[in-house]
Amino acid sequence: MIEKHRHITDLLLQSHGIDASGYDPSFLSKSIQKRITETQCGSDEAYYILLEQSNDEGKRFFDSLHISHSEFFRNPLTFAVLERIILPAMVVHTKKTKRKEIRIWSAACAAGQEPYSLAMLLEELKNSDSEKFNYRIFATDHNETQVAEALSGQYAAEALNSLNLKRVKQWFTKSGETYTVKPELKNNIDFSVFDLFSEHFSCPPSSIFGDFDLVVCANLLFYYNPGYRKMILEKTGNSMASGGFLVTGEAERDMLKNHYFHEVYPQSGIFQKN
Ligand SMILES: C[S@@+](CC[C@H](N)C(=O)[O-])C[C@H]1O[C@@H](n2cnc3c(N)ncnc32)[C@H](O)[C@@H]1O
Fold first, then answer.
1. pLDDT value of residue 2
2. What are phi and psi of 148, to 5 degrees?
3. To which H or E segment does residue 133 belong?
4. What domains appear along the chain, each with residue ranges and CATH number?
5. What is the number of alpha carbons within 13 Å of residue 244 lying toward its C-beta?
6. Ligand 1 centroid vs 35 CA: distance in angstroms?
7. Is residue 179 within a helix (H) or strand (E), and if so which, with residue range?
8. How remote is the CA of residue 6 from the centroid of ligand 1, in Å?
9. What are phi and psi of 139, to 5 degrees?
């Protein structure tokens, strides 16, 4: 297994100048298997020859490593705890300490489902609160196409399956088959392209100094090997305000427990630094 993945990463680097060494070995193996099936190569060896000789296949294999699937309110338990406990407490704390705004980083925002879900919760809190508060969400992804899609805020009907009808009516306008996020949901979100492995920046430059009350870094850790996961967790962890929260994906919860974080509510995927 290990030999197989090393062979592929060497091949990608030598034949296509693509560095895939940061990916998790088991994710790489599954991706290789998938391409072998899709290309009907029939064997590892036949696929290696194709990969060595074809520029197109090099690009296709690399593209297959970039998974951008996302959903509104993707992990219902996480979002329920955010909605009922964490965000209301944050509002109280922000007012009490006279903090200027609640600061949130959606660190792998894909096509925007995650930051828009957070904005819905905060706008709904604002509407139910007589004393107003400010918030800002910095939504970033390393994939330019994803950030452009997020910024457009346009979705097909199927993408809204995880939203209740009330939220669909309140936060989207429908034109033909397309649903577009209303401008008031976008007002407090700052979208930008940002690579979590950037050597130059410790947090999105648009946020200037980080200091986030909440960082959502969900459903990307498991694609990377442990060394790369550690880099991501150090970067996101260092950008948090004191007492801030880090949210991760349902399948990634165990990865944080070894990195000086504890889960604040069982199974929630919401962590604080030890
Ligand atoms: C599977 S999606 C998850 C989206 C969302 N966080 C969620 O939980 O639904 C993974 C996202 O991570 C982004 N990503 C992967 N590596 C990244 C990196 N090094 N820096 C920033 N974004 C990255 C991908 O472009 C993709 O949009």
1. 63
2. -65, -40
3. none
4. 2-64 (no CATH), 76-273 (3.40.50.150)
5. 20
6. 21
7. strand 178-181
8. 24
9. -110, 115
